[in-house]
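Long-time lurker. I teach an intro course on protein structure, and each term I like to show students one example going from raw sequence to a predicted 3D structure in token notation. This year I'd like something fresh instead of my usual example. Would anyone be willing to generate the tokens for the chain below so I can use it in lecture? Attribution to the forum is fine with me.
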Amino acid sequence: MKRFTVDINVGDTILVGKFKNVPVKVVDIELDEHGQPVIVSNSGKKHLLNCRIDKLSPGGMTPNQIKQRAKSSTKTKA
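-- Reply from a regular --
Happy to contribute to a lecture. Here you go:
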């Protein structure tokens, strides 16, 4: 496997908790201060991954700058 894409949208239901058996609804998807994806659910915020993706790390950028870069890259792909 060379690439893996996670398709999670606002409104989807995901399973969280110790045994991954508690369903929660995704309310929003944000970036944290390190540029990593965070899912905002009706029960709070959860990091999407346990690891940190280096190519998403901002370096010296603020979260707003990271969001702007992400928006501009999705516009160029479309």
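Some talking points for your students: The chain has a mean pLDDT of 84. Residues 13-77 form one domain.
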